[in-house]
Amino acid sequence: MLQVRDLECRRGDTSLFSAVNFALGAGQLMHVKGSNGSGKTSLMRIVCGLFEPAAGVVTWRGEKIRELRDEFNRELTYIGHLNGIKDELTAVENLTIYARFAGLAADEPRLRDALHQMGLKGRADLPSKVLSQGQKRRVALARLLLGGTTLWVLDEPFTALDTRAIDLLQTVITQHLGSGGLVMFTTHQDVEISAGAHCHINLDTWAN
To answer: Chain-wide mean pLDDT for the chain?
Structure first.
C-alpha cells in the first residue's frame, strides 16, 4: 500500500541516506531506526510529502503521492516532534481546528471524548500554554482517536509521556493495526506493540 523506491535524502552537499527501499502493507508496523542525524525525521517527512527527496519515489496504493496530494493527505495522520498546537487555544479548540483542517466530521462531544480517552479529563477547556509537555503531547495524540485515516506516521510519539500514557498509546496503535491500519514510527524508548506484522529499517545501513 505504501512503497518507497530508491530514496535518497541530502542535506546540503551531504547525502544522509540513499537507495532506501521498503513497502508497508495493511496491518504492518515499521520502526525506523538510526543514530542521531541519520535522517529519521527527514525520511518521515518525505513519506508524508512534506520534504522532496533528492532521488527516488514514494507511492500510495500504486500512485505517486505528489500526484495524489489531497487524496493521500486524507488518509494520513502525521505527528512530528512538534505538537502542532497553539498555546493560546484550549485543548478542545486545537483539536477542533485539526478536525476541520483534516476534513473530519467530528462534533464537540466526540472531540472531548478523544481528549478524555487520552487522559485529559478536566483539561479540555484550559489554555494549552498551562499544560505540561506531556499533556500537550496528549492533545496532539488525541488526533489518532478521531479516526478517518489509514497511515499513521509518528515521529517520537512517546516523548514526554508518563507510563500510563505510553501504555495507552501502545494500545491505540495496536487497535489501529488490528483494523488494517499502517504505522511508521521512531522512538528511543522501549515499547511493546503486540499486533501487526513488525518490521524495521535502520538508516545507518544506507548511510554514505
So the answer is: 93
CA–CA separation, 17 and 56 (whole Å) = 11
Whole-prediction pTM? 0.95
Residue carrying the nine cell digits 491500519: 181
pLDDT band at 103, cuts 50/70/90? confident
Report the alpha-carbon distance of residue 10 to residue 53 in Å, rounded.
Answer: 8
Place of cell 530508491: 6
Rounded distance, CA 20 to CA 69, Å?
22
Q: How far apart are CA 168 and CA 121, in angstroms?
A: 15
- Tell me how far apart the alpha carbons of residues 174 and 185 are, in angstroms, rounded to a whole number: 13
Q: To which residue does cell 541519520 refer? A: 38
Taking the C-alpha atoms of residue 7 and residue 22, their distance in angstroms, rounded to an integer, is: 10
